[in-house]
Amino acid sequence: MNYQSTRGNSPVVSAAEAIKLGIAPDGGLFVPTDKVTITYEELANLVPLSYGERATFILKHFLTDFTEEELSQCVDAAYGGQKFDTPDVAPVRSLTGDLSVLELWHGPTCAFKDMALQMLPQFLVRAIAKTGETSHIVILVATSGDTGKAALEGFANIPGTSIIVFFPQEGVSEVQKMQMVTQEGQNVHVVAVQGNFDDTQSGVKQVFGDVDFTGTLKEKGYRLSSANSINWGRLVPQIVYYFSAYADLVKSGTIDLGQAINFVVPTGNFGNILAGFYAREMGLPVKRLICASNANNVLTDFIKTGTYNRNREFFKTTSPSMDILISSNLERLLFELTGRQSDKINTWMTELKESGVYNVDQNTLNMVQSVFWSDFATDKETLATIKKVWVQHNYLVDTHTAVAINVLEKYRQTTGDTTHTVVASTASPFKFNSSVAGAIMGPEALAGKNEFQLLQDLSTFTGWPIPRGLRGLNRRPVLHHKVAGKNEIDQAVRNILL
Ligand SMILES: *Cc1c(COP(=O)(O)O)cnc(C)c1O
Protein backbone atom coordinates (compact mmCIF):
# COMPACT_ATOMS: atom_id res chain seq x y z
CA MET A 1 0.00 0.00 0.00
CA ASN A 2 1.32 3.42 -0.98
CA TYR A 3 0.18 6.95 -0.21
CA GLN A 4 -0.63 9.84 -2.55
CA SER A 5 -1.39 13.50 -1.93
CA THR A 6 -4.94 14.87 -2.18
CA ARG A 7 -3.51 17.78 -4.20
CA GLY A 8 -1.97 15.50 -6.83
CA ASN A 9 1.42 17.18 -7.12
CA SER A 10 3.63 15.02 -4.91
CA PRO A 11 5.25 11.66 -5.60
CA VAL A 12 3.63 8.53 -4.24
CA VAL A 13 5.37 7.35 -1.03
CA SER A 14 5.40 4.40 1.39
CA ALA A 15 3.43 4.46 4.65
CA ALA A 16 6.66 5.02 6.61
CA GLU A 17 7.51 8.04 4.44
CA ALA A 18 3.95 9.45 4.73
CA ILE A 19 4.08 9.16 8.53
CA LYS A 20 7.52 10.75 8.70
CA LEU A 21 6.51 13.67 6.45
CA GLY A 22 3.08 14.28 8.06
CA ILE A 23 1.92 16.65 5.32
CA ALA A 24 2.64 16.10 1.61
CA PRO A 25 5.21 18.41 -0.04
CA ASP A 26 2.47 20.01 -2.22
CA GLY A 27 0.51 20.99 0.91
CA GLY A 28 -2.01 18.16 0.52
CA LEU A 29 -2.84 15.27 2.83
CA PHE A 30 -1.68 11.71 2.31
CA VAL A 31 -4.34 9.10 1.49
CA PRO A 32 -3.95 5.40 0.66
CA THR A 33 -3.63 4.72 -3.08
CA ASP A 34 -5.78 1.57 -2.93
CA LYS A 35 -9.03 0.57 -1.35
CA VAL A 36 -8.96 -1.84 1.59
CA THR A 37 -11.89 -4.23 1.94
CA ILE A 38 -12.76 -6.29 5.01
CA THR A 39 -15.18 -9.16 4.34
CA TYR A 40 -18.00 -10.24 6.69
CA GLU A 41 -16.02 -13.38 7.40
CA GLU A 42 -13.02 -11.30 8.52
CA LEU A 43 -15.35 -9.11 10.55
CA ALA A 44 -16.74 -12.22 12.24
CA ASN A 45 -13.18 -13.30 13.01
CA LEU A 46 -12.58 -10.03 14.90
CA VAL A 47 -15.38 -10.72 17.37
CA PRO A 48 -13.51 -13.00 19.82
CA LEU A 49 -10.23 -11.03 19.59
CA SER A 50 -8.75 -8.53 22.07
CA TYR A 51 -8.56 -4.82 21.18
CA GLY A 52 -4.84 -5.16 20.43
CA GLU A 53 -5.38 -8.13 18.10
CA ARG A 54 -8.16 -6.30 16.29
CA ALA A 55 -5.85 -3.30 15.94
CA THR A 56 -2.99 -5.33 14.47
CA PHE A 57 -5.37 -6.88 11.94
CA ILE A 58 -6.70 -3.53 10.70
CA LEU A 59 -3.33 -1.75 10.72
CA LYS A 60 -1.56 -4.37 8.61
CA HIS A 61 -3.79 -3.58 5.62
CA PHE A 62 -2.62 0.03 5.61
CA LEU A 63 0.97 -0.15 6.86
CA THR A 64 2.22 -2.85 4.52
CA ASP A 65 5.85 -1.78 4.87
CA PHE A 66 5.68 -2.68 8.59
CA THR A 67 5.89 -6.36 9.54
CA GLU A 68 3.07 -7.89 11.53
CA GLU A 69 5.51 -8.34 14.39
CA GLU A 70 6.42 -4.63 14.32
CA LEU A 71 2.75 -3.67 14.29
CA SER A 72 2.01 -5.89 17.20
CA GLN A 73 4.94 -4.31 19.10
CA CYS A 74 3.52 -0.86 18.31
CA VAL A 75 0.10 -1.95 19.57
CA ASP A 76 1.54 -3.38 22.80
CA ALA A 77 3.57 -0.25 23.46
CA ALA A 78 0.59 2.02 22.77
CA TYR A 79 -2.26 0.19 24.48
CA GLY A 80 -0.64 -2.51 26.61
CA GLY A 81 0.82 -2.49 30.12
CA GLN A 82 -0.86 -0.08 32.47
CA LYS A 83 -1.28 2.77 30.01
CA PHE A 84 -5.04 2.38 29.70
CA ASP A 85 -7.12 1.90 32.82
CA THR A 86 -9.08 -1.00 31.29
CA PRO A 87 -7.80 -4.02 29.33
CA ASP A 88 -10.63 -3.45 26.84
CA VAL A 89 -8.90 -0.16 25.83
CA ALA A 90 -12.06 1.26 24.17
CA PRO A 91 -15.07 -0.45 25.81
CA VAL A 92 -18.66 -0.12 24.60
CA ARG A 93 -21.45 0.50 27.11
CA SER A 94 -25.04 0.01 26.00
CA LEU A 95 -27.44 2.50 27.61
CA THR A 96 -30.62 1.33 25.85
CA GLY A 97 -31.50 -1.18 23.13
CA ASP A 98 -30.74 1.37 20.43
CA LEU A 99 -28.01 3.48 22.07
CA SER A 100 -24.43 2.58 23.05
CA VAL A 101 -21.44 4.63 24.09
CA LEU A 102 -17.92 3.93 22.84
CA GLU A 103 -15.61 5.14 25.62
CA LEU A 104 -12.46 6.53 24.01
CA TRP A 105 -11.07 8.13 27.17
CA HIS A 106 -9.42 5.33 29.14
CA GLY A 107 -5.89 6.42 28.15
CA PRO A 108 -3.33 8.34 30.24
CA THR A 109 -4.75 11.83 29.55
CA CYS A 110 -8.46 10.88 29.79
CA ALA A 111 -9.40 12.03 26.27
CA PHE A 112 -9.71 10.35 22.88
CA LYS A 113 -6.50 11.85 21.48
CA ASP A 114 -4.62 9.15 23.40
CA MET A 115 -6.04 6.55 20.98
CA ALA A 116 -3.92 8.08 18.21
CA LEU A 117 -1.11 9.83 20.08
CA GLN A 118 -0.07 6.73 21.99
CA MET A 119 0.41 5.05 18.61
CA LEU A 120 1.91 7.76 16.38
CA PRO A 121 5.31 7.86 18.18
CA GLN A 122 5.59 4.07 17.87
CA PHE A 123 5.00 4.31 14.12
CA LEU A 124 7.33 7.29 13.85
CA VAL A 125 10.42 5.70 15.43
CA ARG A 126 10.06 2.69 13.15
CA ALA A 127 9.38 4.94 10.14
CA ILE A 128 12.57 6.88 10.90
CA ALA A 129 14.59 3.64 10.86
CA LYS A 130 12.88 2.37 7.68
CA THR A 131 13.47 5.54 5.68
CA GLY A 132 17.14 5.83 6.64
CA GLU A 133 16.56 9.12 8.44
CA THR A 134 19.56 10.05 10.60
CA SER A 135 18.33 13.30 12.17
CA HIS A 136 16.94 13.53 15.67
CA ILE A 137 13.21 14.31 15.29
CA VAL A 138 11.91 17.31 17.22
CA ILE A 139 8.13 17.45 17.61
CA LEU A 140 6.82 21.00 18.00
CA VAL A 141 3.27 21.39 19.29
CA ALA A 142 1.10 24.44 19.89
CA THR A 143 -1.81 23.35 22.05
CA SER A 144 -5.03 24.77 23.40
CA GLY A 145 -5.13 21.94 25.93
CA ASP A 146 -5.84 18.31 25.06
CA THR A 147 -3.38 17.65 22.23
CA GLY A 148 -0.33 18.93 24.12
CA LYS A 149 -0.66 16.56 27.04
CA ALA A 150 -1.59 13.59 24.84
CA ALA A 151 1.47 14.24 22.63
CA LEU A 152 3.74 14.57 25.71
CA GLU A 153 2.50 11.23 27.05
CA GLY A 154 2.98 9.61 23.66
CA PHE A 155 6.49 10.91 22.98
CA ALA A 156 7.97 10.82 26.51
CA ASN A 157 11.22 8.80 26.44
CA ILE A 158 10.77 7.70 22.82
CA PRO A 159 14.33 7.24 21.50
CA GLY A 160 15.42 9.47 18.61
CA THR A 161 12.80 12.12 19.40
CA SER A 162 12.28 15.20 21.54
CA ILE A 163 9.07 17.09 22.06
CA ILE A 164 8.50 20.78 22.84
CA VAL A 165 4.96 21.85 23.73
CA PHE A 166 3.87 25.49 23.80
CA PHE A 167 0.65 26.42 25.55
CA PRO A 168 -1.00 29.83 26.06
CA GLN A 169 -0.46 30.82 29.69
CA GLU A 170 -4.00 32.13 30.09
CA GLY A 171 -5.71 29.89 27.55
CA VAL A 172 -5.87 26.46 29.19
CA SER A 173 -7.70 25.14 32.24
CA GLU A 174 -5.93 24.58 35.58
CA VAL A 175 -6.21 20.82 35.12
CA GLN A 176 -4.78 20.96 31.60
CA LYS A 177 -1.91 23.19 32.73
CA MET A 178 -1.01 20.92 35.64
CA GLN A 179 -1.19 17.87 33.38
CA MET A 180 1.46 19.44 31.14
CA VAL A 181 3.85 21.08 33.61
CA THR A 182 4.11 17.89 35.69
CA GLN A 183 5.05 15.75 32.65
CA GLU A 184 7.97 13.38 33.25
CA GLY A 185 10.45 12.20 30.61
CA GLN A 186 14.04 13.07 29.67
CA ASN A 187 13.10 14.32 26.14
CA VAL A 188 10.12 16.55 27.00
CA HIS A 189 9.94 20.36 27.21
CA VAL A 190 6.93 22.48 28.09
CA VAL A 191 6.83 26.25 27.63
CA ALA A 192 4.09 28.68 28.72
CA VAL A 193 3.54 31.47 26.19
CA GLN A 194 2.51 34.96 27.30
CA GLY A 195 -0.32 35.26 24.82
CA ASN A 196 -3.44 33.50 23.56
CA PHE A 197 -3.73 30.31 21.49
CA ASP A 198 -3.53 32.17 18.17
CA ASP A 199 -0.25 33.83 19.24
CA THR A 200 1.08 30.43 20.28
CA GLN A 201 0.04 28.73 17.08
CA SER A 202 1.38 31.44 14.78
CA GLY A 203 4.69 31.48 16.69
CA VAL A 204 5.10 27.74 16.18
CA LYS A 205 4.06 27.99 12.50
CA GLN A 206 6.70 30.68 12.02
CA VAL A 207 9.39 28.36 13.35
CA PHE A 208 8.35 25.66 10.82
CA GLY A 209 8.41 28.23 8.01
CA ASP A 210 11.79 29.80 8.90
CA VAL A 211 14.06 28.29 6.26
CA ASP A 212 17.26 29.76 7.76
CA PHE A 213 16.47 28.40 11.17
CA THR A 214 15.39 24.94 10.00
CA GLY A 215 18.61 24.86 7.91
CA THR A 216 20.70 25.59 11.00
CA LEU A 217 18.84 22.89 12.90
CA LYS A 218 19.45 20.44 10.08
CA GLU A 219 23.21 21.08 10.24
CA LYS A 220 23.05 20.29 13.94
CA GLY A 221 21.23 17.03 13.21
CA TYR A 222 17.65 18.05 14.03
CA ARG A 223 14.55 17.72 11.91
CA LEU A 224 11.31 19.43 12.96
CA SER A 225 8.06 17.51 12.76
CA SER A 226 4.52 17.96 14.01
CA ALA A 227 2.10 15.58 15.65
CA ASN A 228 -1.06 17.18 14.34
CA SER A 229 -4.16 15.35 13.32
CA ILE A 230 -3.53 15.42 9.58
CA ASN A 231 -0.75 12.80 9.93
CA TRP A 232 -1.94 9.48 8.51
CA GLY A 233 -0.25 7.83 11.49
CA ARG A 234 -2.83 9.52 13.71
CA LEU A 235 -5.80 8.72 11.52
CA VAL A 236 -5.24 5.02 10.98
CA PRO A 237 -5.35 3.93 14.67
CA GLN A 238 -8.76 5.64 14.86
CA ILE A 239 -10.23 3.33 12.19
CA VAL A 240 -9.64 0.43 14.57
CA TYR A 241 -12.15 1.44 17.23
CA TYR A 242 -15.03 1.64 14.74
CA PHE A 243 -14.42 -2.03 13.92
CA SER A 244 -13.84 -2.88 17.55
CA ALA A 245 -17.11 -1.25 18.66
CA TYR A 246 -18.99 -3.17 15.99
CA ALA A 247 -17.35 -6.45 17.02
CA ASP A 248 -18.24 -5.78 20.68
CA LEU A 249 -21.90 -5.18 19.78
CA VAL A 250 -22.00 -8.47 17.86
CA LYS A 251 -20.28 -10.21 20.75
CA SER A 252 -22.84 -8.95 23.29
CA GLY A 253 -25.72 -9.97 20.99
CA THR A 254 -26.88 -6.35 20.70
CA ILE A 255 -26.72 -6.54 16.88
CA ASP A 256 -26.39 -9.33 14.32
CA LEU A 257 -23.36 -9.62 12.09
CA GLY A 258 -24.06 -7.57 8.97
CA GLN A 259 -26.65 -5.32 10.61
CA ALA A 260 -26.01 -1.64 9.84
CA ILE A 261 -25.51 0.83 12.71
CA ASN A 262 -24.98 4.59 12.99
CA PHE A 263 -22.22 6.49 14.73
CA VAL A 264 -22.54 10.01 16.14
CA VAL A 265 -19.24 11.82 16.59
CA PRO A 266 -18.49 15.14 18.35
CA THR A 267 -16.42 16.81 15.68
CA GLY A 268 -13.74 19.50 15.45
CA ASN A 269 -10.96 18.87 12.99
CA PHE A 270 -12.93 16.03 11.32
CA GLY A 271 -10.28 13.40 12.15
CA ASN A 272 -12.36 11.09 14.32
CA ILE A 273 -15.41 10.98 12.04
CA LEU A 274 -13.22 10.63 8.94
CA ALA A 275 -11.80 7.42 10.41
CA GLY A 276 -15.43 6.25 10.64
CA PHE A 277 -15.86 7.08 6.97
CA TYR A 278 -12.81 4.98 6.05
CA ALA A 279 -14.18 2.11 8.17
CA ARG A 280 -17.46 2.35 6.23
CA GLU A 281 -15.60 2.41 2.91
CA MET A 282 -13.80 -0.77 3.99
CA GLY A 283 -17.15 -2.50 4.35
CA LEU A 284 -18.08 -1.98 8.00
CA PRO A 285 -21.91 -1.94 8.04
CA VAL A 286 -22.50 1.74 8.86
CA LYS A 287 -25.64 3.49 7.68
CA ARG A 288 -25.11 7.07 8.81
CA LEU A 289 -22.26 9.08 10.28
CA ILE A 290 -23.77 11.88 12.31
CA CYS A 291 -21.47 14.87 12.66
CA ALA A 292 -22.14 16.77 15.90
CA SER A 293 -20.93 20.37 16.24
CA ASN A 294 -21.16 23.01 18.96
CA ALA A 295 -21.94 26.70 18.31
CA ASN A 296 -18.92 26.76 15.95
CA ASN A 297 -21.18 25.00 13.46
CA VAL A 298 -19.22 25.45 10.25
CA LEU A 299 -19.48 21.71 9.48
CA THR A 300 -23.24 21.59 10.10
CA ASP A 301 -23.72 24.39 7.57
CA PHE A 302 -21.41 22.65 5.12
CA ILE A 303 -23.15 19.30 5.33
CA LYS A 304 -26.56 20.96 4.98
CA THR A 305 -25.72 23.37 2.14
CA GLY A 306 -22.41 22.49 0.47
CA THR A 307 -20.94 25.89 1.43
CA TYR A 308 -17.92 25.89 3.73
CA ASN A 309 -17.57 29.37 5.20
CA ARG A 310 -15.07 30.08 7.94
CA ASN A 311 -15.84 33.83 7.94
CA ARG A 312 -17.97 33.84 11.05
CA GLU A 313 -17.87 34.70 14.71
CA PHE A 314 -15.73 32.34 16.82
CA PHE A 315 -17.36 31.15 20.05
CA LYS A 316 -15.63 29.85 23.16
CA THR A 317 -17.88 27.00 24.30
CA THR A 318 -18.05 24.43 27.09
CA SER A 319 -16.77 21.85 24.56
CA PRO A 320 -13.47 23.63 23.79
CA SER A 321 -11.84 20.77 21.85
CA MET A 322 -14.43 21.38 19.11
CA ASP A 323 -13.92 25.15 18.95
CA ILE A 324 -12.48 25.01 15.45
CA LEU A 325 -13.34 26.85 12.23
CA ILE A 326 -11.03 25.01 9.83
CA SER A 327 -11.57 21.25 9.82
CA SER A 328 -8.42 20.14 8.00
CA ASN A 329 -9.33 16.48 7.54
CA LEU A 330 -12.41 17.39 5.47
CA GLU A 331 -10.00 17.65 2.53
CA ARG A 332 -9.55 13.87 2.59
CA LEU A 333 -13.29 13.26 2.54
CA LEU A 334 -13.79 15.58 -0.44
CA PHE A 335 -10.96 13.88 -2.28
CA GLU A 336 -12.56 10.46 -1.81
CA LEU A 337 -16.14 11.58 -2.56
CA THR A 338 -15.24 13.42 -5.78
CA GLY A 339 -13.66 10.24 -7.09
CA ARG A 340 -10.18 11.57 -6.27
CA GLN A 341 -10.25 14.74 -8.39
CA SER A 342 -7.21 16.71 -7.23
CA ASP A 343 -8.06 19.66 -9.46
CA LYS A 344 -11.29 20.24 -7.52
CA ILE A 345 -9.48 19.91 -4.20
CA ASN A 346 -6.86 22.43 -5.28
CA THR A 347 -9.54 24.92 -6.33
CA TRP A 348 -11.54 24.62 -3.10
CA MET A 349 -8.51 24.73 -0.81
CA THR A 350 -7.15 27.79 -2.61
CA GLU A 351 -10.55 29.49 -2.23
CA LEU A 352 -10.59 28.59 1.47
CA LYS A 353 -7.14 30.04 1.95
CA GLU A 354 -7.80 33.22 -0.03
CA SER A 355 -11.39 34.09 0.82
CA GLY A 356 -12.31 31.69 3.63
CA VAL A 357 -15.20 30.19 1.60
CA TYR A 358 -15.79 27.45 -0.97
CA ASN A 359 -18.84 25.78 -2.50
CA VAL A 360 -18.84 22.17 -3.60
CA ASP A 361 -20.88 21.10 -6.64
CA GLN A 362 -24.31 19.47 -6.28
CA ASN A 363 -22.99 16.01 -7.09
CA THR A 364 -20.40 16.17 -4.31
CA LEU A 365 -22.99 17.54 -1.88
CA ASN A 366 -25.29 14.62 -2.70
CA MET A 367 -22.45 12.22 -1.97
CA VAL A 368 -21.74 13.95 1.37
CA GLN A 369 -25.40 13.81 2.34
CA SER A 370 -25.75 10.15 1.41
CA VAL A 371 -23.38 9.29 4.28
CA PHE A 372 -23.39 12.24 6.70
CA TRP A 373 -26.02 14.13 8.66
CA SER A 374 -25.22 17.05 10.93
CA ASP A 375 -26.58 19.44 13.50
CA PHE A 376 -25.21 21.38 16.48
CA ALA A 377 -25.89 21.86 20.20
CA THR A 378 -25.73 25.09 22.18
CA ASP A 379 -24.01 25.19 25.59
CA LYS A 380 -27.39 25.28 27.29
CA GLU A 381 -28.53 22.16 25.44
CA THR A 382 -25.21 20.48 26.21
CA LEU A 383 -25.49 20.99 29.98
CA ALA A 384 -29.16 19.93 29.96
CA THR A 385 -28.14 16.74 28.13
CA ILE A 386 -25.49 15.90 30.75
CA LYS A 387 -28.16 16.19 33.44
CA LYS A 388 -30.72 14.19 31.47
CA VAL A 389 -28.33 11.31 30.72
CA TRP A 390 -27.31 11.20 34.39
CA VAL A 391 -30.92 11.12 35.61
CA GLN A 392 -32.17 8.64 32.99
CA HIS A 393 -29.24 6.25 32.76
CA ASN A 394 -27.11 6.92 35.84
CA TYR A 395 -24.30 7.52 33.37
CA LEU A 396 -21.95 10.48 33.34
CA VAL A 397 -20.82 12.16 30.11
CA ASP A 398 -18.51 15.07 29.42
CA THR A 399 -19.53 18.15 27.43
CA HIS A 400 -18.24 16.88 24.05
CA THR A 401 -20.08 13.59 24.39
CA ALA A 402 -23.21 15.47 25.47
CA VAL A 403 -23.08 17.53 22.25
CA ALA A 404 -23.17 14.26 20.33
CA ILE A 405 -26.08 12.85 22.32
CA ASN A 406 -28.09 16.05 21.88
CA VAL A 407 -27.48 16.02 18.12
CA LEU A 408 -28.51 12.36 17.99
CA GLU A 409 -31.86 13.32 19.57
CA LYS A 410 -32.31 15.93 16.85
CA TYR A 411 -31.41 13.37 14.19
CA ARG A 412 -33.98 10.91 15.47
CA GLN A 413 -36.70 13.57 15.73
CA THR A 414 -36.00 14.77 12.20
CA THR A 415 -35.58 11.43 10.43
CA GLY A 416 -37.45 8.91 12.58
CA ASP A 417 -34.45 6.59 12.13
CA THR A 418 -34.21 4.20 15.10
CA THR A 419 -31.09 2.33 13.91
CA HIS A 420 -28.79 1.27 16.77
CA THR A 421 -26.40 4.19 17.24
CA VAL A 422 -22.99 4.35 18.89
CA VAL A 423 -21.95 7.64 20.46
CA ALA A 424 -18.21 8.32 20.29
CA SER A 425 -17.43 9.50 23.84
CA THR A 426 -14.29 11.59 23.51
CA ALA A 427 -13.42 12.69 27.04
CA SER A 428 -13.81 11.52 30.61
CA PRO A 429 -16.44 13.60 32.44
CA PHE A 430 -13.72 14.42 35.00
CA LYS A 431 -11.64 16.18 32.37
CA PHE A 432 -14.21 18.99 32.00
CA ASN A 433 -15.39 18.69 35.56
CA SER A 434 -16.66 22.18 36.31
CA SER A 435 -19.21 22.07 33.46
CA VAL A 436 -20.21 18.53 34.37
CA ALA A 437 -20.46 19.23 38.11
CA GLY A 438 -22.49 22.37 37.43
CA ALA A 439 -24.84 20.43 35.15
CA ILE A 440 -25.67 17.64 37.60
CA MET A 441 -25.12 19.27 41.01
CA GLY A 442 -26.40 22.76 40.15
CA PRO A 443 -24.39 25.94 39.57
CA GLU A 444 -24.32 26.73 43.32
CA ALA A 445 -22.12 23.65 43.85
CA LEU A 446 -19.33 25.42 41.95
CA ALA A 447 -19.19 28.51 44.20
CA GLY A 448 -15.72 29.17 45.57
CA LYS A 449 -14.36 25.83 44.34
CA ASN A 450 -11.31 25.31 42.13
CA GLU A 451 -11.15 22.53 39.54
CA PHE A 452 -9.22 20.20 41.84
CA GLN A 453 -11.82 20.44 44.60
CA LEU A 454 -14.54 19.88 42.02
CA LEU A 455 -12.89 16.64 40.88
CA GLN A 456 -13.37 15.31 44.38
CA ASP A 457 -16.88 16.72 44.74
CA LEU A 458 -17.95 15.17 41.44
CA SER A 459 -16.52 11.81 42.48
CA THR A 460 -18.25 11.93 45.87
CA PHE A 461 -21.58 12.95 44.35
CA THR A 462 -21.60 10.30 41.59
CA GLY A 463 -19.62 7.49 43.19
CA TRP A 464 -17.46 7.40 40.05
CA PRO A 465 -13.71 7.20 40.78
CA ILE A 466 -11.42 10.02 39.66
CA PRO A 467 -9.39 8.59 36.71
CA ARG A 468 -5.74 7.82 37.47
CA GLY A 469 -4.45 10.49 35.06
CA LEU A 470 -6.19 13.22 37.07
CA ARG A 471 -5.86 11.86 40.61
CA GLY A 472 -3.57 13.82 42.92
CA LEU A 473 -2.61 16.08 40.02
CA ASN A 474 -2.37 19.24 42.15
CA ARG A 475 0.15 17.54 44.44
CA ARG A 476 2.54 16.36 41.72
CA PRO A 477 5.84 18.24 41.41
CA VAL A 478 5.95 20.98 38.76
CA LEU A 479 8.85 20.05 36.47
CA HIS A 480 8.52 22.73 33.79
CA HIS A 481 8.84 26.44 34.53
CA LYS A 482 9.82 27.97 31.17
CA VAL A 483 7.92 31.04 29.99
CA ALA A 484 8.30 32.76 26.61
CA GLY A 485 6.95 36.05 25.28
CA LYS A 486 4.64 35.61 22.32
CA ASN A 487 7.40 36.72 19.96
CA GLU A 488 10.08 34.57 21.58
CA ILE A 489 8.92 31.12 20.54
CA ASP A 490 11.77 30.64 18.05
CA GLN A 491 14.22 31.80 20.72
CA ALA A 492 12.80 29.24 23.13
CA VAL A 493 13.35 26.46 20.57
CA ARG A 494 16.92 27.73 20.03
CA ASN A 495 17.62 27.76 23.77
CA ILE A 496 16.37 24.22 24.17
CA LEU A 497 18.10 22.66 21.16
CA LEU A 498 21.25 24.66 20.33
C1 LIG B 1 -10.01 16.59 19.61
C2 LIG B 1 -11.31 16.34 20.28
C3 LIG B 1 -12.53 16.30 19.56
C4 LIG B 1 -12.61 16.56 18.08
O1 LIG B 1 -12.07 15.52 17.30
P1 LIG B 1 -11.65 15.77 15.79
O2 LIG B 1 -10.96 14.53 15.36
O3 LIG B 1 -10.75 16.97 15.79
O4 LIG B 1 -12.91 16.02 15.02
C5 LIG B 1 -13.69 16.02 20.26
N1 LIG B 1 -13.68 15.83 21.61
C6 LIG B 1 -12.54 15.87 22.33
C7 LIG B 1 -12.61 15.68 23.81
C8 LIG B 1 -11.31 16.11 21.69
O5 LIG B 1 -10.18 16.16 22.43
UniProtKB/TrEMBL annotation:
<protein>
    <recommendedName>
        <fullName>Threonine synthase</fullName>
        <ecNumber>4.2.3.1</ecNumber>
    </recommendedName>
</protein>
<dbReference type="Pfam" id="PF14821">
    <property type="entry name" value="Thr_synth_N"/>
</dbReference>
<dbReference type="GO" id="GO:0009088">
    <property type="term" value="P:threonine biosynthetic process"/>
</dbReference>
<dbReference type="InterPro" id="IPR029144">
    <property type="entry name" value="Thr_synth_N"/>
</dbReference>
<dbReference type="GO" id="GO:0030170">
    <property type="term" value="F:pyridoxal phosphate binding"/>
</dbReference>
<dbReference type="InterPro" id="IPR000634">
    <property type="entry name" value="Ser/Thr_deHydtase_PyrdxlP-BS"/>
</dbReference>
<dbReference type="GO" id="GO:0005737">
    <property type="term" value="C:cytoplasm"/>
</dbReference>
<dbReference type="InterPro" id="IPR037158">
    <property type="entry name" value="Thr_synth_N_sf"/>
</dbReference>
<comment type="function">
    <text>Catalyzes the gamma-elimination of phosphate from L-phosphohomoserine and the beta-addition of water to produce L-threonine.</text>
</comment>
<feature type="domain" description="Threonine synthase N-terminal">
    <location>
        <begin position="2"/>
        <end position="79"/>
    </location>
</feature>
<keyword id="KW-0663">Pyridoxal phosphate</keyword>
<dbReference type="InterPro" id="IPR001926">
    <property type="entry name" value="TrpB-like_PALP"/>
</dbReference>
<comment type="similarity">
    <text>Belongs to the threonine synthase family.</text>
</comment>
<dbReference type="InterPro" id="IPR004450">
    <property type="entry name" value="Thr_synthase-like"/>
</dbReference>
<feature type="modified residue" description="N6-(pyridoxal phosphate)lysine">
    <location>
        <position position="113"/>
    </location>
</feature>
<dbReference type="InterPro" id="IPR036052">
    <property type="entry name" value="TrpB-like_PALP_sf"/>
</dbReference>
<dbReference type="GO" id="GO:0004795">
    <property type="term" value="F:threonine synthase activity"/>
</dbReference>
<keyword id="KW-0791">Threonine biosynthesis</keyword>
<feature type="domain" description="Tryptophan synthase beta chain-like PALP">
    <location>
        <begin position="105"/>
        <end position="412"/>
    </location>
</feature>
<keyword id="KW-0028">Amino-acid biosynthesis</keyword>
<dbReference type="Pfam" id="PF00291">
    <property type="entry name" value="PALP"/>
</dbReference>
<comment type="pathway">
    <text>Amino-acid biosynthesis; L-threonine biosynthesis; L-threonine from L-aspartate: step 5/5.</text>
</comment>
<keyword id="KW-0456">Lyase</keyword>
